[in-house]
Amino acid sequence: MAVEIDRDYTPGSPVYLIGILKGACIFLADLAREMKTPVRIEFMSISSYGRGKSSSGEVRIVKDIDVSIEGHDVIIVEDILDSGITLNYLAKLLTQRKPKTLRIATLLDKPERRQRPVEVQYVGFKIPDEFVVGYGLDYAEDYRNLKDVCILGE
Fold this sequence. Notes:
This protein is an alpha/beta fold. Helices cover 18% and strands 31% of the residues. It contains 3 helices and 8 strands; from the N terminus they run αβαβββαββββ. The longest helix is centred in the middle third of the chain and has 11 residues, at 85-95.
């Protein structure tokens, strides 16, 4: 994915990677280290799940970015795209801040779960409709530290 991103951007011009906390932090770190394009890293914390296995449907910003992205290339970095509720909301919000470009990179995509349309430019893996944990993904704040992405058992 880093090679693909590097191809899409002008060498020497920084790209803001906006990681969605907490799940995307491990993926973002690995992605940034593999990129040759200069990066600036920002984080947002957004809640739509609470402590359950499904989205509440209500999105709220817990932590916003600390800089203006106006006129900059921006990539939202997400751990998993399933319902699309969060990323649909976030893409609209960040577009209002007038970035030069706005794209989305997700490690995992669950297209079967889509409730809102989301245009994603970079996808690591498409996965079936299973609840997964590890590599930053959690269930009630547990399992983020697993090295692999695993299906959560009953």
